[in-house]
Amino acid sequence: MRAIDADALMEKYGEPCHSFADVIEDMPTLDLAPKWISVEDRLPPDKGKSILVANGHGYVRILAFWNKDDAGWKWIDQNGHFKHFNDITHWMPLPEPPKEEE
Length: 102
What we know:
Blueprint: H1 6-13, H2 21-24, E1 37-38, E2 50-55, E3 60-69, E4 72-76, E5 82-84, E6 88-93
Antiparallel strand pairs: 1-6, 2-3, 2-6, 3-4, 4-5
């Protein structure tokens, strides 16, 4: 199973078709993977929520954004300690944890 763009389907074929199987192969697959967000474009919205962060040297870790003060970007590490990391260039939300099967 793959996610497709229903808006693209409607734009290309108008009203719903009776046989979608014939046209689904032509539809673009949606890219649902999280993307890295530059700290220049946007800061994490939730203060204290854990996120994945990266710097320009290939270093990736889980931190929680706190704020920006006179000393730079303030983050909380996994041990709950406040640290200043001024080389963070990108961030992305962590994925949802797996759900237990019923």
